[in-house]
Structure formats: C-alpha cells, structure tokens
Amino acid sequence: MQTATLNINGMSCSGCASTVSRVLKNINGVQSAAVNLDAASALVEFDPALTGPEAFKAAVEDAGYDVV
Ligand SMILES: [Cu+2]
Prior knowledge:
Elements: E1 2-9, H1 14-25, E2 30-36, E3 41-46, H2 53-62, E4 66-67
Copper (II) ion binds next to helix 1.
C-alpha cells in the first residue's frame, strides 16, 4: 500500500467532505480515504498496482472540487 495526500479546494461543509471521501473510496484499488475538512486535504491509502494520484484527481474534479 502507498499513501498520497491531496489538497482540495472547494469543500465548504461536512457534506462536501463526505462526498469527496465517497468518490475516492469508490475507486478500485483505494483502501481508505480520510478527508480533513479544516485542512482541505485528503489522505488516501491505495494499491499502486491498481490506481494512483491521477485517478484521484480526476474523481475529485468530476465531483466538482479542485485538486491543487
Ligand atoms: Cu458542502
């Protein structure tokens, strides 16, 4: 397993944080996703054979937030 930290713009409430968490966890290969609303970040634990940061960025942006 590897971990990656994403910095995410646009999350304004806990509903946003749970949306981001859900879309990350839906990615095949993601084991866990811990979203920190105050820090505007997400810590993702994943299998690098299956997925990676490019997929996380695409999924978060599809959900309407910006990865910076
Ligand atoms: Cu919100």
